[in-house]
Amino acid sequence: MTAAASASEADRRFFDSVSGQWSGPGEIVAGKYAGTKFMCNFTGSTPEGKVGMSLDGGCRVGLFTQRMSANIEQHGRSGYRGTFMDGSQGEGLDVVSGQVTREQVIFAINRNALNGAMQARLSDPNTMQVTVSVRVDDTMVPVIGVNLKRADGRAVGSTAQNY
Question: 10 Å Cβ neighbour count for 116?
């Protein structure tokens, strides 16, 4: 098996482990709305026949719900490409690259002069932390943090390791 093929299989295992229902609290930790707390619900899935993931759902602040989505797919040797929300052509951000390890994925995000990163880390098969950071001068500043728990009772720990 080539290094690229084995890397794709490792990536596929990570994305498969994100499939399912996720729910949990989040907070804006920097900027104009720092301290704002919210609750999110997402459905994770993998695109048919491709390496990548989709997260679809929304986050609620009080009576208001903001629909949220991310769609990311492997794009040849250049890594990953996709959109957060509706991409930079709309109100969202473009995913311009990405790297997957055994327990986390880090995507570079971009919109005009805004550059940042979105990190999703699985601390265990049923717990995922998502952090969105933006570049300010030469420093990455975390602006949003979300702590999600698996809400569907799906046991992935034993199956995700055996692909």
Answer: 20
Is 68 within 8 Å of 85 (Cβ atoms)?
Answer: yes
**132: its two tokens:** 């969105």
Rounded to the nearest angstrom, the gap between the alpha carbon of residue 13 and the centroid of all alpha carbons in its chain is 15
Tens digits of residue pLDDT in 57-96:
999 999 999 999 999 999 877 689 999 888 898 888 999 9
Phi, psi of 11 (to 5 degrees): -60, -45
The closest alpha carbon to 150, from 12, 18, 5, belongs to 18
| pLDDT tens, position by position, 88-122 | 988 889 999 998 887 899 999 999 988 999 999 99
Q: How far apart are CA 109 and CA 131, in angstroms?
A: 12
Q: Residue 22, Cβ neighbours under 10 Å: how many?
A: 23
